[in-house]
Amino acid sequence: MKQNLASQIALLILSLIEHIGLAVITIATVIAGAAEVNVMIQAGTVTLADLLLLFLYLEILAMVGLYYRSGKLPVRFPIYIAIVALARYLVLEMKNLDEWRLLGITASVLLLAVAVLAIRYGHVRYPYSDGE
C-alpha cells in the first residue's frame, strides 16, 4: 500500500523525534552513571545499592542499543529494569519496611519474573513475523 506525502512526512517527523528522544536518554544515562561513579569515588566505597544503580543505567543503555540495532523496542528490558529497581529499593529500605510492604515488593518481583518467563516462552513458541 502506497503512503501519501502527508503520511511520509509524519513518519519522518516521528522518526526524528524518536531519535532525538533516544539521544537524550543516552546522554542523560551516561551523565547519571558518571555522577554515580563520582559519588562512589568521593565516598571511597562501593555499596550493593551503588552497583544496582549502575546496573540500571547499563540496562537502559543496552535497551537503547538494542533498539538501534533491531529497530524494535524489547519488551523484556523494561521488565528487567523494574526488577532491578525493586531489588535496589529492597536493599536500601529493608530496615524501614513493614512485613506487608516487603511481601508486596517481593510478590511484585516474582510477578515480573513470571511475566518475563511468559514473554520469553511466547517468543520461542510463537515467533514474530512481519506478515511475510
Describe this structure in words.
By secondary structure, this protein is mainly alpha-helical. It has 2 domains: about 1-70; about 75-130, no CATH class. The chain has helices spanning about 5-45, 50-70, 75-95, 100-125. Helix 1 (about 5-45) packs antiparallel against helix 2, helix 2 (about 50-70) runs antiparallel to helix 3 (about 75-95) and helix 3 (about 75-95) packs antiparallel against helix 4.
List the secondary-structure elements in sequence, H or E. HHHH
Main beta sheet: strand number and arrangement?
none
How many helix segments?
4
Q: What is the total number of structural domains?
A: 2
SS content category: mainly alpha
Distance between the termini: 14 Å
The poorly predicted ranges are none
Q: Roughly how many Å is the radius of gyration?
A: 19 Å
The coarse silhouette is flat
Report the portion of residues in β strands: under 5%
Helix content: over 70%
